[in-house]
Write a structure and sequence with these properties.
heterotrimer; A mainly alpha; B mainly alpha; C alpha+beta; B: mainly alpha; globular; C: alpha+beta; 16 helices; 21% strand
C-alpha cells in the first residue's frame, strides 16, 4: 500500500506500541555481546560496512583517471583527488594533473602512443560514471570491455554509477533519518514531557498535520519550485526527512509520556534535579536507544523511498547517479536485465542489512521484548 | 472517553484547515496554472495563446488573485457543500472522485435500485477503484502474515521463525516498481496468466455479476500483490510480537498449569488477546486504504486516486488536489483516533491526554 | 554498565554517521567527454495489405483498439486544446476542411471553396444532406455559431482564437454557403479552417452567456457529424465509439473504435503483445529487439514515418547573456554537436538531422540547405574568433574574465531530451564550453521560456498545416507584454529584418512557385544565422495488427491519423474479425 512507500518509517516506529518494558540495567551480557549473538545482524553490519567502504573508495575502483601515472617524468595519483582526506596527504601538484579532455585517451594508448606517458595503472573499471559513450548505449555486461555490470541507456558504465550512487543512497538514508530524528525527538519529547495543553493543542496537532501531509505531493511540488543550484539529492533527502519525522515524534512522545510518571523520574526530581536536566540526563537516553532501532529501519525505508522517488522522476536527477535512477531505467527497457539486477540487488541487500541490524539491535537491547 | 472523543473530533477541524492551507500554499508556489499547462509548444501559428485573452481567462477563474484570496474562495465553496469544479476534467470534483455516486439517490429510483446504482458508481469511480484494490491488498497481507506470525510465535526461535523472518524481510527489501515490472513481464506477458492493465476487461458491461467479480479479481491480483508484499514483514512481526506478549501473561501460565494443550492455549487465550492490538494495526493501515499508491497505479494503469492525484498536480488542478488531500487527511485522522481509542479500551493503564 | 554501553553505542553511531557523511560527500567526481560515431537509414512502406487482400472489396465490421496516454480533457472541439482530446473528438466531429496524406487541403464539411480574385474573401460551399448524429441537418448556421463561440471571450477557446487573427468577418450567404473576409490577403489562412464544427441546436446560448458554454453537459455527451458516435466514456479507463451509419461519406468499415487509457511506454507494448491493443508505438530500442521476433513480425504491419515535429536548442539572443547574441558563437554551438551521432546511437537511426524549421519532405524546404557537419575544430576556431579563448591551464573558455558557462533549460518529463543534453554537455566540454542542465517541470518550463527567462533551452516544435514560420521567427513575436509573457513563440528573440520582410511577403503570396522561392530564401538566412540549433526530425515507428487492411501512413508527416480520411478506409476481412 502507499503506506509502504510513504510510511516505511511510520511502520517502523509504530511497531512499538503496546505494553511497557522493563527499565534500567540488568546483569545480562553487554550490548555488543548480545548483538553479536545474532548471525543475521552481524551479516547485516558487515554488509553495511562493505557498502560504506565501497562508497568511499569508489574513485579508486571506477574512474577514467589512473590510480598512478608517470607523466613527463613525474609521478601523479589523479584518482586520489576525490578521496578526502587522502588527497591532502599526497603532494599537491602530484595529484592535480589535468589530463586531456578525451576520457578514453589512456585506453586508446596502445593504438595512439603518447611519449609523455610512462607507466600507468587504471582502476579495474576504467570509466567515469558521467561519461556517455554513444556506441555503448544499452550494452550488456561484458568483462572483456571492462563493463562488469553493463551500460545504461546513454552508454554510461553501470558499475561506476553504482559505486558513486552508493554515496547518494547511503547519504539519503543517514541524512533523511538524521533530520527526522532531530525534529521528531525534539517535538515528541516536548509533547510527552510537557503534557497538558502544550501536548494536546500544539504538539499532537503538529504531528497529525505532518502525518496527513501527502509525501509525494510535497516532493513533486518542491522539485517544481526548487532552484536547482541547490543539489537535488540534498533536497530529496531533506524532504524525505521532513515527512518522516512524525512517526518518530509519536514514538518519542509515547515514551516520554510513560517515563514521565515512572519512579526513576520521581526519584530524580525528589533528589532536587531540575525538570530540564531530568529530561536530558534520564529520560532522553532511555528513549533514545530503542529509537535507534527505529532509526535503522527508517534508513532502510529511506533507501526504498529514494528508489521510488527516482522512478517517478523527482529524485536524484541524471547525470548524477543513484541506485534508484539506474533501477528506474528497467521500467523502460525490460530486456536490459542488468539495469534491474545490479541496482535491484544492491538496494535489496542494503535494505535487508539495515533491517537485520535493526532487528539485532532490538533483540540486543531488550531480550524480553517481542523480538 | 466520550469527552476525549468529542474533543478530538473538534480538534480535527483546525487540523484539516491547516493541512489544506499548507497544501494550497505549496502547490501555489509552483509556477503555472491549469491553463498554462495545456499549452503545446509549436503546432504552428494556430496553436499559441493570445496573452491578453489568457490573462482575461485567468481573471475570470480568479487565478490571478493572491493565493490567500483563492483559498478563501475555495473555503466558501466548501462551506456551501461543494468540492468545486475540476479544471482538467471540467466537471464537479465530487464526480471526478466518486463518479457521481451520490446522485443515485436523487434520481427518483426506488431505494433498492438507488442503493445498487450508488454502489456501482462508487465502485467504478477512482475512489472505489483505490479502495477495492487496497482492501484486496489488506486481505492478502492479513491472510498470509497473520498465520505466519502466529506460527512463528508458537515455535519461537525455531527454523520456521527464523526462515520466515528472513524471507519476509527480504521481500520488504525489494523496490516495488521493480517487482511490478517483473510480475508484468513474467506473469502478464510471458505466461499470459493474468491481465495487467486497468480494472476491467473489454466486455465487462455485458458480464453477469459473478463474471464481473471474477474479472475484477483477475485484474486486481497483480497490483494487490505488489502493494501487499512489502507489508507482510511488518504484519507478521507485529502478530508474532503480540501473540508472544499474550503468551507470557499469567493467565496463560495458569491455563498451561490447568493442563490445556499448547494448541488450545494458543487458540483460546493468546489469539483472542492478540486481536485487540491487531485491530489497532488495522486502524494504522486504514489511511493507506484511501490513499492510492501512485507508483503501482501508474504501472498497472489502475484508474484510482493515486494516479488522479499525480495528474492533478501536473495539471495544477487545485480543486482536485485539495479534495484528495482532505480525503487522505480525514482518513488518517479518523484512523488515528480509532487506534488511540482502541488502545485505551484495551489497556486501562494507558491514559488518554 | 548499561549506561556506558548506551553511550558507547551513541558515539559509535555518531562516528558511523560522520564517517559515512564524510566519505560520501568527498569531492564531486569530475565529468569528462564521450567518444566516436557511426552511420544512417531511411523510410518504409506507406500502405499495408496482407498478401491477396489488396484487390478485394472492403468488408464492414471489426473493432480497432488503440491507446491514449491520459484521459481526454473534454470532447468539445472548441474547448479542447490538448492532443489527447483531439484524438478522441476528431472521430465524432468533422472539420470544415482537412489535410490529406500529401498535405493538400480536402473538403470535409465544405464541399468546395474558392478565393475571390484579390484573395480577400474565401467562400465555402457546404456539403448538403449532412446530418448530425441526432438526426438534425447540418447547415451554415452551425458553422457561424462554431466560429462565434470560438471567438467569444467568455468561452475558454484560447488555442483556437489566434488562428482566426486575420479573419475580418464570417458571414452566412445562404444555408449552405459561408463567406470569410480576411483583413489582408493571407496565404496561411486556409489552414485555419481545419476547424471542427459543433451543432448550434445543442450548444447555442443566449448573448452574454458564454460561460455556460464551458459547462454545457453536452461536453460529456457530444453529438457531431463525424464517422463515429460516442457510445461510452469510462473516465481513466476507455472510450468506446461506434460507427455512424448515416455518415455522409458512407459508414466507416470498422464497427467500433476503442480508445484505452494506457500510459506510454512498455505497458502499451505489452498490451499490444497480449492482444489488448491493435496498435503500438515502438521506440528505437523496442524495435531493435522485436525485429527478430518472428511471432511479433508475422502479426504486424510496421510503419515508420516522420512526425511533423523537430527538436531544437534555442539560444537566447536578447542580450541578457553575453554568449549568444554573437552569430559566430551560435554557429560554433552547432558545429560542436555531433547530431548525426545521436541519431545513430540514441535514436537508433530513426530520424534525420534537421537543417531548418521546414519539413524536409515538403515544398517549403530547400534540399540544397544541408545541416552543418560535426566539426569541433571549426567550432573552436569560431569561438576564438568571437573572443572566447581558452586560458592556459583551464578547461573553460573565457572572455573579459567571464567564463563560458551557461544553463540549458529542458522539460523534465521528456527523458529523451535529458539524454541528448548529457551527450551534448560532454561534447561542449571538449570545445571548452560548460553547459549546465536544468530540468524544469513542464508548466515551469513553458512559463520560463515564454518569459524569456533562460539562456538556452531544448524543446520541440510541431508544424502546423501551413509552413508559415511567423510566430517562431518574426521579430515582432519576441516582444514582451507588461505581464511578462511574450506575444509569440519567438523565444530566442531572433530579429533579422530581411527574414521579417520575406515572411510578410510569403504570407501574401498565393502562387506556390513564388511562395516556395521565398521560403527557400528564409531557410538559407536562418541557416546562416542559427538562431537555434536545429537538432532532429525524429521518426515514429508504429506496429498495427495486420488483420487491418488498407492501413496507410502519410508521407507528409501526418502519420496514421491526423489526415483525412485515414482510419475511415481501414477494413478487416470477415474471416479475421474477432468475435
Amino acid at each position: 500500500m502507499s503506506g509502504r512507500e510513504e510510511g516505511a518509517v511510520k511502520i517502523g516506529a509504530e511497531a512499538r506500541t503496546g505494553a511497557p518494558r522493563s527499565l534500567g540495567g540488568d546483569a545480562t551480557p553487554t550490548l555488543w555481546a548480545r548483538f553479536r549473538r545474532s548471525k543475521g545482524a552481524m551479516a547485516g553490519l558487515a554488509f553495511v560496512g562493505f557498502l560504506l567502504a565501497a562508497a568511499y573508495f569508489a574513485p579508486l575502483i571506477a574512474n577514467n583517471e589512473p590510480l598512478v601515472i608517470r607523466y613527463e617524468g613525474r609521478w601523479s595519483f589523479p584518482a586520489f583527488r576525490e578521496l578526502p582526506p587522502l588527497n591532502h596527504l599526497l603532494p599537491k601538484d602530484a595529484v592535480d594533473l589535468r589530463l586531456a579532455a578525451d576520457p578514453d585517451w589512456l585506453l586508446d594508448l596502445p593504438s595512439k602512443p603518447d611519449p609523455r606517458v610512462g607507466f600507468f595503472l587504471l582502476p579495474p573499471v576504467p570509466y567515469s560514471p558521467y561519461q556517455t559513450r554513444l556506441r555503448d548505449v544499452n550494452r550488456g555486461p561484458s568483462l572483456s570491455r571492462r563493463h562488469p555490470f553493463g551500460c545504461d541507456d546513454s552508454g554510461r558504465d553501470v558499475c561506476a554509477r553504482m559505486l558513486y550512487g552508493a554515496r547518494v543512497s547511503l547519504l539519503v538514508g543517514f541524512l533523511a533519518v538524521g533530520v527526522a530524528l532531530l525534529i521528531g525527538v525534539a517535538v515528541g519529547a516536548l509533547g510527552g514531557y510537557a503534557g497538558g495543553w502544550v501536548d494536546a493543542v500544539v504538539v499532537s496537532r503538529l504531528i497529525e498535520v505532518m502525518m496527513c501531509f501527502p509525501t509525494f505531493f510535497l516532493l513533486l511540488a518542491v522539485v517544481a519550485v526548487m532552484d536547482p543550484r541547490y543539489l537535488n539529492a540534498w533536497t530529496v533527502m531533506l524532504v524525505i526527512g521532513l515527512t518522516s519525522w512524525p512517526a518518530l515524534a509519536r514514538y518519542t512522545r509515547a515514551e516520554f509520556l510513560r517515563l514521565k510518571d515512572s519512579d526513576m523520574t520521581a526519584s530524580a526530581l525528589a533528589a532536587g534535579a531540575g525538570p530540564v536536566r531530568v529530561a536530558f540526563r534520564h529520560l532522553l537516553p532511555n528513549a533514545l536507544t530503542p529509537l535507534l532501532v527505529n532509526a535503522t529501519f527508517a534508513i532502510a525505508g529511506s533507501i526504498l523511498l529514494e528508489s521510488a522517488v527516482s522512478f517517478l522522476g523527482v529524485g536524484v536527477q541524471p547525470p548524477e547517479p543513484s541506485w534508484g535512477n539506474i533501477l528506474s531505467l528497467v521500467t523502460r527497457y525490460w530486456s536490459a536485465w542488468w539495469l534491474g539486477l545490479f541496482p535491484g540487488a544492491a538496494i535489496f541487500l542494503s535494505v535487508l542489512s539495515y533491517n537485520l541490524v535493526g532487528e539485532g539491535l532490538r533483540e540486543a537491547l531488550d531480550p524480553h521484548s517481542a523480538g | 472517553m466520550l469527552a476525549y472523543t468529542v474533543r478530538r473530533l473538534l480538534l480535527m477541524v483546525p487540523t484539516l484547515l491547516l493541512i489544506t492551507v499548507v497544501v494550497f500554499a505549496v502547490v501555489k508556489l509552483a509556477p503555472g496554472n491549469p491553463f498554462s499547462v495545456l499549452q503545446v509548444p509549436g503546432e504552428g501559428p494556430s496553436r499559441q495563446m493570445n496573452p491578453e485573452d489568457y490573462q482575461a481567462m485567468l481573471h475570470r477563474y480568479g487565478l490571478d488573485r493572491p493565493w490567500p484570496v483563492q483559498y478563501w474562495r475555495w473555503l466558501r465553496t466548501l462551506a456551501s457543500g461543494s468540492l468545486g469544479e475540476s479544471f482538467s476534467q471540467r466537471r464537479p470534483v465530487s464526480d471526478v472522485l466518486f463518479g457521481g455516486a451520490e446522485r443515485a439517490f436523487s434520481a427518483g429510483l426506488p431505494p433498492a435500485a438507488a442503493a445498487s446504482a450508488f454502489l456501482r458508481r462508487l465502485a467504478e469511480s477512482p475512489f472505489g477503484a483505490t479502495v477495492q484494490l487496497n482492501l484486496l491488498a489488506l486481505l492478502f497481507m492479513a491472510g498470509v502474515a497473520f498465520p505466519v506470525g502466529l506460527r512463528a510465535a508458537a515455535r519461537r526461535g525455531g527454523a520456521f521463525d527464523r526462515v520466515s523472518s528472513l524471507l519476509l524481510y527480504g521481500l520488504y527489501s525489494l523496490p516495488n516498481f521493480w517487482v511490478a515490472v517483473l510480475l508484468i513481464v513474467l506473469v502478464g506477458v510471458h505466461w499470459r496468466l493474468l491481465p495487467f492493465i486497468g480494472m476491467h476487461s473489454d466486455g465487462f458491461g455485458a458480464m453477469g455479476p459473478l463474471a464481473q467479480a471474477w474479472d475484477f479479481l483477475r485484474h486486481a491480483t497483480l497490483p494487490a500483490l505488489c502493494l501487499s508484499y512489502g507489508g507482510l514483514a511488518f504484519v507478521a512481526r507485529f502478530t508474532r510480537g503480540t501473540v508472544l506478549e499474550a503468551l507470557h501473561q499469567d493467565y496463560v501460565r495458569t491455563a498451561r498449569a490447568k493442563g490445556l494443550t499448547e494448541r488450545a492455549v494458543l487458540r483460546r487465550h493468546a489469539v483472542r488477546n492478540a486481536l485487540i492490538p491487531l485491530l489497532t494495526l488495522a486502524g494504522l493501515l486504514l489511511p493507506s486504504l484511501v490513499s492510492g499508491s501512485v507508483i503501482i497505479e501508474e504501472i498497472f494503469a489502475w484508474p484510482g486516486l493515486g494516479r488522479l492525484f499525480v495528474q492533478a498536480i501536473y495539471a495544477r488542478d487545485y480543486p482536485v488536489i485539495l479534495a484528495e488531500s482532505v480525503l487522505g487527511a480525514v482518513a488518517v485522522l479518523l484512523s488515528t483516533l480509532a487506534a488511540d481509542l482502541a488502545c485505551a479500551a484495551a489497556d486501562p493503564r494507558v491514559r488518554l491526554t | 554498565m548499561g549506561a556506558r554501553w548506551r553511550r558507547g553505542l551513541a558515539w559509535g553511531t555518531a562516528l558511523l554517521l560522520a564517517g559515512g557523511l564524510y566519505g560520501c560527500s568527498g569531492g564531486q567526481p569530475k565529468r569528462t567527454a564521450p567518444a566516436a560515431a557511426l552511420s544512417v537509414t531511411p523510410l518504409n512502406r506507406t500502405v499495408a495489405f496482407l498478401p491477396g487482400y489488396e484487390h478485394r472489396p472492403p468488408e464492414n465490421g471489426g473493432t480497432f483498439t488503440m491507446a491514449l496516454p491520459v484521459d481526454p480533457v473534454t470532447l468539445n472541439p472548441i474547448l479542447a486544446s490538448d492532443r489527447v482530446s483531439y484524438m478522441a473528438y476528431k472521430w465524432i466531429f468533422d472539420p470544415l476542411i482537412d489535410m490529406d496524406a500529401d498535405m493538400k487541403p480536402v473538403g470535409v464539411l465544405a464541399q468546395s471553396w474558392e478565393n475571390s480574385p484579390d484573395n480577400r474573401t474565401t467562400t465555402f460551399h457546404l456539403r448538403k444532406g449532412v446530418l448530425w448524429q441526432d438526426g438534425k441537418p447540418f447547415t451554415a448556421d452551425d458553422v457561424l455559431f462554431s466560429y462565434h463561440a470560438a471567438m467569444d471571450p467568455a468561452v475558454d477557446a484560447l488555442q483556437l482564437r489566434p488562428a482566426f487573427d486575420q479573419v475580418a468577418k464570417v458571414e452566412k450567404v445562404d444555408d449552405y454557403t459561408v463567406r470569410v473576409t480576411w483583413k489582408e490577403p493571407y496565404a496561411p489562412g486556409l489552414a485555419a479552417w481545419v476547424f471542427y464544427i459543433i451543432p448550434e441546436h445543442l450548444y447555442g446560448y443566449a448573448r452574454g452567456k458564454g460561460a455556460s458554454f464551458n459547462q454545457n453537459p453536452a461536453n460529456q455527451a457530444p453529438v457531431g457529424t463525424g464517422p463515429f458516435r460516442l457510445e461510452e466514456w469510462k473516465r481513466g479507463d476507455r472510450l468506446v465509439l461506434t460507427a455512424n451509419d448515416h455518415y455522409w461519406r458512407g459508414r466507416p468499415h470498422l464497427d467500433r473504435l476503442i480508445l484505452k487509457i494506457i500510459p506510454k511506454g512498455q505497458t502499451q507494448l505489452a498490451a499490444y503483445e497480449t492482444g489488448q491493443l491493435d496498435m503500438a508505438a515502438l521506440s528505437a530500442e523496442q524495435w531493435d529487439e522485436l525485429r527478430t521476433d518472428s511471432a511479433f513480425a508475422a502479426g504486424a504491419s510496421i510503419f515508420e514515418y516522420y512526425a511533423r515535429q523537430f527538436f531544437y536548442l534555442g539560444w537566447n539572443m536578447d542580450g541578457s547573456n553575453p554568449f549568444f547574441a554573437d552569430r559566430r558563437v551560435r554557429q560554433a554551438m552547432t558545429y560542436a554537436l555531433d547530431r548525426q551521432g545521436v541519431v545513430e546511437s540514441i535514436l537508433g537511426g530513426h530520424g534525420a538531422v534537421a537543417a531548418g524549421p521546414f519539413y524536409p519532405m515538403s515544398w517549403s524546404s530547400d534540399p540544397q540547405v544541408k545541416p552543418y557537419p560535426y566539426d569541433p575544430a571549426k567550432a573552436s576556431a569560431l569561438l576564438d574568433e568571437a573572443g572566447w579563448k581558452l586560458p592556459p591551464g583551464k578547461t573553460i573558455r573565457e572572455k573579459e574574465g567571464k567564463p563560458f558557462s551557461f544553463e540549458c533549460l529542458v522539460p523534465a518529463e521528456v527523458d529523451m531530451f535529458s539524454r541528448w543534453l548529457e551527450v551534448f554537455q560532454q561534447e561542449l566540454k571538449r570545445v571548452g564550453v560548460d553547459m549546465r542542465i536544468r530540468k524544469a517541470e513542464w508548466s515551469v518550463f513553458l512559463d520560463r521560456t515564454h518569459r524569456h527567462q533562460f539562456q538556452a533551452y531544448l524543446s520541440g516544435w510541431g508544424l502546423g498545416d501551413d509552413p508559415d514560420p511567423y510566430s517562431l521567427l518574426d521579430s515582432s513575436q519576441a516582444r514582451l507584454l507588461p505581464s511578462g509573457l511574450a506575444v509569440g513563440q519567438n523565444d530566442c528573440s531572433y530579429a533579422n529584418p530581411e527574414v521579417d520582410r520575406l515572411i510578410a511577403e510569403e504570407e501574401r503570396t498565393f502562387d506556390l512557385q513564388a511562395r516556395q522561392t521565398l521560403f527557400w530564401k528564409i531557410e538559407r538566412l536562418v541557416a546562416e544565422d542559427q538562431p537555434m540549433t536545429f537538432l532532429f526530425w525524429p521518426t515514429q515507428m508504429v506496429a498495427v495488427k495486420n488483420r487491418f487492411q488498407d492501413v496507410r501512413v502519410s508521407r507528409a508527416g501526418y502519420g496514421m491519423f491526423t489526415w483525412y480520411p485515414s482510419l475511415l478506409d481501414w477494413w478487416v476481412p470477415k474471416e479475421l474479425q474477432k468475435p
